[in-house]
Amino acid sequence: MIVVADSSPLRYLIVLGQSELLPGMFGETWIPSAVVSELSTTATPSLVRTFLRNPPPWLRVRDPGSAALAAITSDLDPGERAALALARELNADLVLLDDAAGRREALALRMRITGTVGVLRLAAERGLIDVPGVVSQLRESGFYLSESLIRAAFDQWL
Q: Taking the complete model, does pTM exceed 0.90, yes or no?
């Protein structure tokens, strides 16, 4: 399975200590260097910056070609735009995105998407996470999570 990630899902999975869900469920995860750049700023938690300085072998960095990048709207931030271009170039099976504008663009391009909550939901279905603990951590991490979304995604485990 070919999976491409934008910044937000990777950031939050690392912060939650759940990044190993990605290789466990999907194998390799691809990111463009624009995502690495976004996650390497001082505003990013040090845990994430440290993770990216010595990434695991399952996290692959590759930039899309200029033609693929030009085919994606410039209205998105650089990481989202590059992630979608890379997903298109690799014919990805799944794109990990949280941002609404990026998700709309991915759907317009007929890409299959999920986000941080979707990854955690799949992990819950497979019995890979302690749902109450992870949801609590997610709330504390600064990730915007409405009560209706929590109920819709995780109610059967809470």
A: yes
